[in-house]
Specification:
260 residues; Neuraminidase; 3 helices; 2 domains; 18 strands
Amino acid sequence: MVVGRTVNAAWQLRAFRWQNGVMQDLGTLGGSESAAYGVSADGSVVVGRTVNAAWQLRAFRWTAAGGMQDLGMLGGIENEARDVSADGSVVVGVSSGRAFRWTQVTGMQDLGTLSGYGSKALGVSADGSVVVGAARNAAGQLRAFRWTPDGGMEDLNQTYASLQMDGSALWWATAISPDERYIVGYGYNASTGCNEAFLLDTGFPLRGDVDRNACVDDTDLLQVLFAFGERGYRNEDLNWDGIVDDADLLEVLFNFGSGC
């Protein structure tokens, strides 16, 4: 499944979903333009931006059953959704210059800033709990961030300062791995004097650490065993292939005792 944007026969930009050689026009919210930026793991939910009948940019969530849904806004008129969780229930993006996280229950939640002006959410973990993006700090510098429900928004340059050379900077975090451990993006590398892509290994969670307590132990093993055979993207699905099976059990066993 692939999503993106294309130009139709009327020379209008349209969000599309492509599967098995067939391109589907996802429509708009009454305007003449749309673009898709993210898709759920099974391809059933698509997110992006569109223009409504009042020529306002709106973040949308699309499903085959419900069509295109306007996710609302934090104020102002510009909004776009950039990514969606594996099951399609959590959407992240930017609304009126602020990063947001949306669910059907909470609506659009403002994730704040790094004490500066503006932020943008660009990626979300498979379970929807961790968001990454870019924000301005109090000095007006662009900085990659990670947001969690408990910790709020943190500057990755401060959290992982020990991993960087003086003068280097992580500017944009564009995506996060399903298990939340790896973050990718781009910034400035002082050793080469170039703007470069980065891959950050945060070291958390440990491989095989289902309950995220920094110790791979009996509890993790039992969680995988009790969920064995279940489908759906969840922490017990350690390789994030959509089913809890032998591969996930082996990952716990191979890493048993790590961090304990």
